[in-house]
Structure formats: structure tokens, C-alpha cells
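Reviewer 2 asked us to include a model.

Predict the structure of this chain.
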Amino acid sequence: MIDVSCGCGASLSVPDSMAGKEGPCPRCGTVLSVPRIETPRTRTRTRTSAEPAATLRETFAIEKVRCACGVTSARRRGEDGACPACGVALPAEAR
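Predicted model (C-alpha cells):
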């Protein structure tokens, strides 16, 4: 139930299904807005100063690879790939 007060002094308890909607005050007829129900947000884990900030490269094990054609691309560390520009195979050990 959501508690709503009117300027005329009436106090109402309306069902949660009325959240975000409007309805008339039963005493004076003034249109009242029922507030939305605020759900508790999940708290995200905060990093302590002892934990270093991981970069995307570290988190996802990403490495840069440069092809003989001069194009640099990114891929997951240890995976074979191909140059996006010329299609030449880039084995995992190529850097």
C-alpha cells in the first residue's frame, strides 16, 4: 500500500498497482498523483584502494596485433586470427 495525502487533509492508502497513476481524492475530488514505488537498487561492489583498477586489456586478455600490411587490430590473447584489412592469417604467437 502507498500512502498519499491531499491538501484538504485527507490521508489515503492506495494499492501498489496505482503507483505512477492519478486518481481523485474521495473527500474533495482533487486529482492526486500517486508516487512511483522506488525499488531498492542492487549495490554494486566498490573497489577498495588495495585493489588495482583492471584495464579492459587485462580483464578480457586483449592484445594488439600488427599485420605486415601495417594494420593494427585487437584480439583475445592466445587466439589465432586474421587481419581485418587484408585477411592474412595471424597465428597466436605473432606480435
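Helices lie at 56-60. The first helix runs from residue 56 to 60. We have added this to the supplementary material.
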